[in-house]
Amino acid sequence: MLGNLGKNLTNTMKKLAGMTIIDEEVVKEVIKDIQRALIQSDVNIKLVLNLSKTIEDRALNEKPPKGVTAKEHVIKIVYEELVHLLGDKAAEVEIDKKPYKILFVGLQGSGKTTTIGKMAKYLQKKGFNPALICTDTWRPAAYEQLRQLTESLNLSLYGDPNNKDALDLARKGLKEFKKQDLIIVDTAGRHKEEKDLLDEMEQISAVVEPDEVMLVIDGTIGQQAKEQALAFSKTTKIGSIVITKLDGSAKGGGALSAVAEIGAPIKFIGTGERIEDLEVFDPERFISRLLGMGDIRSLIERAEEIAEEDVDAEAMDAMLSGKFTLKDMYSQFEMMNKMGPMQQVMNMLPGMGNKLPKNASQVTEEKLSKYKILMDSMTEQELTHPEIIKQSRVKRIARGSGMRNEDVKELLKYYQVTKKAIKGFGKRKMGGPMGQMMR
Ligand code: GDP
Questions:
Q1: Signal peptide: which range, if any (predicted)?
Q2: Which residues are annotated as a binding site for GTP?
Q3: pLDDT of 324 strictly over 90
């Protein structure tokens, strides 16, 4: 996707990951690579320069959080700034009324009709039954194209190739489909003059009163997408943008960043000609994929979170070496909580997923607090030598904590299982950010 942009950025990240020392020279080289890749993808030069400056400032001045290497920190900065370039957060479509009306606008050739088909299928899969209205009176083939589309998806279509009044078509279509849960209105993509087209969009919008206007923009036009989005947004309130033809488009990065720059919500991207080739656009996921980062993001985030807290290294060592008492478990509970459910942490380490017994990973926060209350009723000796806890002690602990004998037994069972699992865990050498963090 996006021509060479992904390949170039992935190579840069690989190069960075292979460096032993991260100094000013390395940071500058990385930035040069990123600049080259982005400019090739038609990202606006001003945006590229801003981004470069921010990356450089942050990489050279921000101190990596404890437990995070300089390299991981720079990777994280590059990732964050690229996500920012594409608008940070994913915007979602919320269909919250009936009928929900979506008005599609966009220039001819942008991929509007194709995208309508993709959207209809996407929404159909979500359990809706979209009905389509064709108001394109300019392109004779438009109705036919939609007819075939709706036929193959088994959806209703309203249109009349002999009617040349777009507003009338819109009105009649809406009347026909007023009991439908979702209505998609297609519009013309061309007029004699661009102004006429934009005027018509304004009028149709007034008739349809759409809940959402989706603007389709051809990704191959690169940074010009900004002007197009601005022109349409003057006539009607654009709620979503779909950037099409990002498969193989060399200028896709330019289109995405230009649209994000004006704060327009890119909700979907078109990634091919087939009806399935529509993706929900999420800048974070998109950039991780583009950088070939996979799960690095979550690992780095988690490493950072833990580094922020003062991890008790001694207790961690004891835990990993297998000398693990109830007392250790008590002090480790909070840290485990910060790392996330054990199973989730393990799943992110290559070859470690599924190594933890099921019941050991299923400790919820609620259980953790229950266990803590139980442990508060234990003596020091019981905490450091849990093997001495037999029937009478179980009873006393249960009474003291206001819980049942079974609760104490459950805690002891959990302790045994965890101890066993952790012993295995400690024996394995861990590489990568998690390894760094654990050492
Ligand atoms: P409209 O005039 O805006 O309705 O455009 P169409 O839907 O007819 O699409 C114009 C051309 O772009 C067609 O050949 C489509 O197959 C193609 N197209 C649309 N979306 C995509 C996409 O995401 N990727 C690729 N490669 N082609 C697309």
A1: none
A2: 106-113, 186-190, 244-247
A3: no
* Phi, psi (rounded to 5 degrees) for 418: -65, -40
The mean per-residue pLDDT over the stretch 262-277 comes to 92
> 354: buried, middle or exposed (CB in 10 Å: 19+, 13-18, 0-12)?
exposed
To the nearest 10 degrees (0 to 180), the angle between helices 45-61 and 24-40 is 160
Q: Positive or negative CA dihedral for 220, 224, 225, 228?
A: negative
Strands 182-186 and 212-218: unpaired
**Residue to substitute in 135, 271, 273 for testing ligand 1 pocket (most ligand atoms within 8 angstroms of CB):** 273
Alpha helices in 90-183 (DSSP H): 112-125, 141-153, 166-176
- H or E segment and range at residue 215: strand 212-218
79-137 pLDDT, tens digit each: 999 999 999 989 888 999 999 999 999 999 999 999 999 999 999 999 999 999 999 99
Residue 32: pLDDT over 80: yes
Is the pLDDT at 246 greater than 60? The verdict is yes
Distance CA 299, CA 311 (A): 17
CB atoms within 10 A of CB 402: 10
With a Cβ cut-off of 6 Å, ligand 1 is lined by 106, 108-114, 189, 244-245, 247, 270-273, 277
Listed in sequence order, the DSSP H helices in 222-341 are 225-235, 252-261, 283-290, 296-308, 313-321, 326-339
Mean confidence (pLDDT) of the chain: 83
The domains found in the chain, sorted by start residue, are 5-85 (1.20.120.140), 100-281 (3.40.50.300), 309-438 (1.10.260.30)
Q: What spacing in Å lies between the alpha carbon of 120 and ligand 1's midpoint?
A: 15
